[in-house]
Amino acid sequence: MNGLGVVCVVGAGQIGTSIGMALKGSATAMADELLLWDVDQGRRARGLVRGGADRSLLDPEEVLAADVIVLAIPVSEVVGWLRTWGGQVSPDTLVVDTGSAKQAVVAAMRSHLGPGVHGIGGHPLCGNEGRGPEAGDPAMLKGAVFVLTPLADDPPTLERALALVGALGSQPVVLDAGRHDEILAVSSHLPHLVAAALVELVPEGGAERELWRRLLGPGFRSATRLAASDPEMVASFLAANSGPLRHALGEFEHGLREFEAEVTSPSSLASRLERAANRRADLVGDC
Amino acid sequence: MNGLGVVCVVGAGQIGTSIGMALKGSATAMADELLLWDVDQGRRARGLVRGGADRSLLDPEEVLAADVIVLAIPVSEVVGWLRTWGGQVSPDTLVVDTGSAKQAVVAAMRSHLGPGVHGIGGHPLCGNEGRGPEAGDPAMLKGAVFVLTPLADDPPTLERALALVGALGSQPVVLDAGRHDEILAVSSHLPHLVAAALVELVPEGGAERELWRRLLGPGFRSATRLAASDPEMVASFLAANSGPLRHALGEFEHGLREFEAEVTSPSSLASRLERAANRRADLVGDC
Prior knowledge:
Two copies of one chain form a homodimer. By secondary structure, chain A is α/β, with parallel strands linked by helices.
């Protein structure tokens, strides 16, 4: 076994394809063989063409022969896969996913993976509004943070997951699944909801459609970019993280009401906006 | 008089400087002379260096000698300028502003400009989170929509304003001030508030600051980009457009509550997110 052994990516979407391409392109050739499974036959074929695997599988059971199984499918499908196949995964297999909500995945791994299987939650913080294998790009994993959420204090599993993350060129952050979900509710899940809710305020069709189109500038475009994401993927992680998301939403609505109360006092509003601008610059820089 | 005559830009911020640079760089040399005034002496000097004018003025009264006065200052300062100087503007002078809220400006023009003065509201839909003359760039006006909100049915004023917009390389859209403000409340003003409220959800400082920094990805960055804008400018147009902004905020909160109710039904949530994604693509394209 050459580092990772035989790796099987389940899901030929943007992230699964990017992971396959990154492993194939890795100078250290960490994977002995790279397999691809996707329940959608067309997407599976397109993923293979895109270069995300050595060969695609004909049967979902063949996934179980891999040394490393990467579940790059929406969170609800990760949970479904674990329910269906988890009991048949061989001991010593590393099972990791890429979903944006981790408590549900970690709980399903605990319930469904047999003893000796090395399960760990994973979440690469990359990807954009592109969809499908054609949107895959190994460069998006390079230098990206890849969160790992262990099921328990389990150094051998973590070590193998770190080798996978390293082979992708990503930066590991090891974190409790619950803490991950609380932070992601604020940093990603709520912003997805907010972007969609902003888009919905624009009247649909009608005589003024052309006028609105002309008046929607770059600010609206960036504020709503997340609303262009794959709806099934987003719905899946929002639903899987509904508790922390509702908490974040409550705090957000509270903040909006405070802003609303201040909206006719430009000087206190300006101070508050300046604090937000400075905090943002401190967090994400000037861009 | 060569087209526009003597043009004076009031305000050496990003937009005022961009307008000056665009007029100076215009192949048709529409302005006989280009003057610059800014109440901040340092910014005035930097605007001149940046190339936004032929000369800067030493006294605010000298602005009144221009044939065209472009008020490129925050909305509250536009209203203040009109209150102070409006009665002394010579007949036939074109007075236009660049603020993001137009009802307040149009009302102040009606109240303070003397008879025969050609006042009209203006709003170029460009600019970004850059600030000051150094962030000025005439390219941002090229092809940008420049809304004009007339005070009355007044073809001579409109014709001169259209000549100015044409000299900047921008695309004019003539619109009622109230309608402009209703649309901008949704397309720009609410998104500014929302971006700041999202930033405020990130805990300030503390032991976890580094963790948050690592977990804030490109989605959070684009969703909050508007929060990096000039706070005084933003506070000024939010306050000037508080009525339509509050209305938009009410509708937005209603939409959020509907989303919240659906958050545990992934399939209806996915349908709703898909409609939003399609509507956004129809409005602003794929980017």
